Structures are given as structure tokens and as C-alpha cells.
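Q: Hi! First time doing this. I have a protein sequence and I read that you can turn it into a structure. Is that right? Here it is:
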Amino acid sequence: MLLNISKHSSLTAAAESMNMSQPAVSQWLSDIESAIGVTLYTRGRRLKPTPYADILIKHAHVMLGESSRMHEEISAMQKGSSGIVRIGTLLVGATKILPATLLSLMAEHPNLQFSVIEDLNVNLVTRFENNELDIIIGRIDFLMLTSKYFHEVLLDDQHCVFCGPNHPLTKKRKPTWKDTLNFPWILPPSDTPLRQAIEMNFAANELAYPTPWVESTSITANMSLMRQSNCLAISSTTAARHYESFGIIRTLPLVLSYLSNSIGMMWRDKTPSPQVQMVLDALRKQTKIIRSEHAERLKVTT
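A: Yes, that's right. Below is the predicted 3D structure, encoded as C-alpha cells:
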């Protein structure tokens, strides 16, 4: 009920969303405030949360995540599963290391189940803090470094510019950042670390940063647009080369600076559950395999 009040900022709207009467919701809120001895909302045309409400809402999200986790584990056990592990990942993790990890675990622990969500780093960290995820595979950025949770670097991965397979810049021997300004750009939202790093990169090259033709975090939409236009975008080099191997896109030799290159995993407890520990160990194992394969390719090319 508290989360519904927070969502709607109105007792009437919250009551309607829960098929309750407004007086009943108002009385519930008053009873809660009396019980804990603080005012949670300032009344008016719109409810305004006090700092006390922010604390309660934060813990309510965590409790909701715990409740969801409990139901998932019970359901999984009823179906004969040995447990379920909820994993959040960036695109870079979703293209190689996570699939390899899940396939190895399927062979070794066939009764272990997984839930996978792909999103931006900032959204994954929020979900993790609300106890909606057990593990994050993401970029080791400021959010991870300053969190109270455990993290470990797995791989290094830069961001590069990519385009459609027949883009004019693919025919240029050494395209420059200045060259990219002649084409429309698909950029991530302005409030994301990646967008800020892109703008800093253009500034460092003494260039005005491009106005986005489209703001998008959808890799599927981005690639479809690139196949039908001369637009440009930036993505994880690992992910971009994965799609390049299918002939869908082409990567350009323009690498982004001013953003962490470290890809790692984050988990909650010093002593994780057996199921989470299995996934962490499998990620470490697959990381070693990927690094070894990369080293072999470098030997061949040199």
C-alpha cells in the first residue's frame, strides 16, 4: 500500500488502483504514522513525501524483492529445481560470457534455474539494491565501486563506433572522430555515463558533440536502423564484434575514452548461497577460457 501511495502521490488514485475506498487508505496511512511516530506525507492537492517516507519506501522495495525471491524459490522447488539465480547483465555480458556460463551450468547442474535481465548499469544496480537480482555482470563504474557489495573484475572491454555493413566510413582507411560528424548519430540517453563519456570524447578532440538523431538503448532497433541508413552508434567492442561476425554491422577503429573498461560481477553476501556461488565460480572459469582464447588469437595475428 505504501508503494502505491508513493507511485500515485494521491490517496484517491492509490485507493482506486487497489480497489479500496479513499477513507480506508487515508486511515491506514494515519495508523502507520501514529505507530512509528513520524509524518510520512505532507497533505495537500498532491502528497509530498517527507524524508521518513523515503526511508520506508526504500526498505519496502527491498522487502518486496525478498517476497518475490521467496515465491520464486518455492515455485522452483515445487517443480524439482535446486534453486533459481537472478542475473542482471549489460549487453557485453549477454553476448558471450553469460551464455557460456549458463551452458556450462546446464551440463553440471541441470536442476538449477536462472532469470536473466539485460539493462543499463544504473538500472541494474537499482534492481540489485531492491533485491531483485542476485548477481550483476556489468561495467565496474562509480556505482559499483562505491557500493557496499562485493565485486570482482572479469574482463576488459572498450567501447567502439559501429555502423551498417555498407557505410561510407567502412571504405575509409583511417576514419576520424571529425568524419563521424558528417553522419546522423544514435546515442544513449543524456543522463547515462556512456552518453557523458561520448560527449567528453568529442570535447577532448576539440569537436562539438553530435546532436542525436535518435536516443536509444535498444540494440535491435539500432542495428535495424543502421542497415537502412548511414547512422552511427557506440557499443561495447565485444558485443559489436559479436554482431559483426554475422555480417549485421561493421566496427570502426574509433575507440571511446573516459569510461571504465573493466567488466566484472557484483554480488551481495560475503558467503553467498550455494546456487549463487556456483554461478560466480562458473563466471570465473569462463573468464579464464575467454582470456586464453583471446591470447591464442593474438599469437596467431602476430
